[in-house]
Amino acid sequence: MRQTVIKGGTLYTMKDGQDVFQGEILIEDGKIKKVMERIPEEMISDDARIMDASGLCVMPGLIDAHSHIGMFDFNSETSVDEANEMTDPVTLSIDARYGVNPKAREFKVAYEHGITTMLLTPGSGNVFCGLPFAMKTYGDNAFDMSIKAPCAVKIALGGNPKNTYGDRDQLPMTRMGVAKVLWDTFRKAKTYMEDQENGKNPPYNADMEALCLALKGEIPCKIHCTQYDMLTAIEVAKAFGVRFSLEHAWGATDYIDEIVESGCDVCYGPIATYRCVGERRKIDVEAVKMLDDRGVNVAIITDSPILSEESLYHHIGEAVREGVSQERAMRMVTINPARILGVEERIGTLEEGKDADIILVKGKLGLDTNAKVQCTMIDGNIVYCCL
Amino acid sequence: MYLIKNGRIHIGDGTILDSCDILTKGKKIEKIGREIVCPEAQVIDASGCEVFPGFIDPHCSIGAMGIPSRHLDNQESTGLFTPEMNVKYAMDPDEVNAQEFYKSGITAVGLAPGNGNIMGGQIAVVKTAPQKMSERLVKEKAALKCSVTSAVKNTYGSKNQMPKTRMGIFWSFQEMLRKARTVKIEDREERQEIVSEVFDKMTMPVFCAAETPAEIQGLLHMMKEEKVQASIVDGFGFGDALEEMKRQKTGLILGNVNSCSQIAKYGIDLEKINELVKNGNRVAFTNTCGGFSEGREVFLWSAIEVYRAGVEAEEVVRMMTEHPAEMLGLGDRIGTLKEGKDADISIFTGHPVTTYAAKVKHSIINGEVLY
């Protein structure tokens, strides 16, 4: 593969402790080979493609840590729900890769707006919903686009599972019922894991196998919860010692101390829902500033296609409106979600050895409302360019 | 009395006055000019701030839905035509208050019936400040809400009642108009009387929900000979009906484009709004998509999407202020900062169309400072 050199741009590497600087990036074989003020001539081959990024911001591709694009598929006349296997409150081991339509139009919108990686997750219709995975946004085949599967165990509290099964007169019909399913399933998995460790050879159970990954700390739990349900999530996760992120987290301003103390990550969003009693009581994007100030790893999410993928800009912007600096806000859609997805070794910053997922942006995303991605590169390939 | 000093004032009609003052008295704007002196007025320093007329969302379902009751208060799904329904009676002030619309600069909303009926009822305009109901209600019977979207088919066709198809929707709509116009006066029902007054005496404008190109084109074809002023609500497929919209000067109340990825779904080219602007069509933004509202933020987001697509910032401001006021027949009371008009003023720390770092510093509604 031809080398590419990006010159003349202002680099936002998103690397801890590194300030913005004028610099150059050398790309080779889909990876970032060098990031420095000036790439020495001898490193650049004669046929290298030189890209002029003068006047542009050069950043790692954006990451949306919570999406259902191609799973809630709005691309047919009637919308298709491939995200919710609502036949049992525990469908823990279903694999989101089988649910995605990789040709959904929204993926194109995503990479044209500089979003190069997403976490695709089953919906929230069950308490244990299934296994999310991380994928690049450009390609023809979800399995090829995938960069990590599974990334987490997706869990949902509150109204979604309650309404699914309550309507059928089945457990869980209440939030207490959701908590019971949560406790029971974790206990069962713990016993399963202990039996395995003690050589008791329990009969194979795909759901328990998947939850054991979380119990062993190999993957985190992504727990859909809002308002008071956050405390339930924290209590149960703590009891079983699993790593976890709170997903959506509306109302987090009421639970900042508990969240900080638990050491969890937070995927905040989407915002802009109407406010009403219950789960939608408080939609407080200012929470991301309070959490970030207290050292919590925070990502901003869209829940696309429920809200459009391009609304990620508005989401970053609303965080900025509430006082988050533009630079901190950009971390919430790059390196922070990369860590939550467990793929920070590959993406999330402009660093040597990482995937060449790079965007060139005119203006400042999250600040200038007309900031526009001019070029998107995924694995060193230019997938969108209007330069 | 309040004296807003030294702001950059956006009148709402496209003009901007730099470092100018606004004096309010009671509920109204008393004076706009440079270096106004008024010792008895309380001064609000707006130096470095952008001052706008309160934004207006002409079509909003939240505030009339009555959540969490089992039946939405703005959906009288018992008849295809319920033009006599007055949203005023469905109003839930707490539901409006909970949205804190003024934090996004929105000071008035047109509460609207849903999309399930071909004629759902009459829109009422209210201020968004938690004030007395008598002061909040700006106008009832501001517009007749109609719909030709699939929501109508879902409401009635699913019960094997007409209309089950788009053909059925338009047939029913046209039959309603024909009957209302031909029935003997003494036999006329209340709803027929309202329809005839709206369509023949233009007692109020029509806001009609239409999303797809086919729905919009069908509506425009049906409205070709009608004189009533019409605006399309949602209108995601407007780009495929531009010429007819221009001919009829149809308004566009653009739906919440960020809801369920409408831009990707319809391949919307928002830049085409420039053609409507040049032609003098009115354009506004609604927080609804398919008849359902989302929170206050989406109003600004739609405005930003249109700006991003290449429409001038001050034209976008007009779509948030002057145009919706005129669509609702309230151009003489709200929508622009002019002497004698309601003192509905939003003071931002920046220009909310061009920068996200623009926060409402003060919101004034009916001359009262909310914060």
TrEMBL record, chain A:
The name this protein carries in UniProt is: Amidohydrolase family protein
Domain of life according to the entry: Bacteria
Tell me the ranges covered by the Amidohydrolase-related domain, including all copies: 58-383
Give coiled-coil spans as residue ranges. none
- Supply the Pfam families for this chain: Amidohydro_1
Organism of provenance? Sellimonas caecigallum
What InterPro entries does the entry give? Amidohydro-rel (IPR006680), Metal-dep_hydrolase_composite (IPR011059), Metal_Hydrolase (IPR032466), Metallo-dep_Hydrolase (IPR051781)
UniProtKB/TrEMBL annotation, chain B:
In terms of Pfam families, this protein maps to: Amidohydro_1
Which InterPro entries does the protein's record reference? Amidohydro-rel (IPR006680), Metal-dep_hydrolase_composite (IPR011059), Metal_Hydrolase (IPR032466), Metallo-dep_Hydrolase (IPR051781)
Q: Gene3D superfamilies from the xrefs?
A: Metal-dependent hydrolases (3.20.20.140), Urease, subunit C, domain 1 (2.30.40.10)
Ranges where the Amidohydrolase-related domain occurs = 258-369
Q: Which domain of life is it from?
A: Bacteria
Q: SUPFAM superfamilies in the record, alphabetically?
A: Composite domain of metallo-dependent hydrolases, Metallo-dependent hydrolases
| Name the record gives this protein | Amidohydrolase family protein
Biological source species: Sellimonas caecigallum
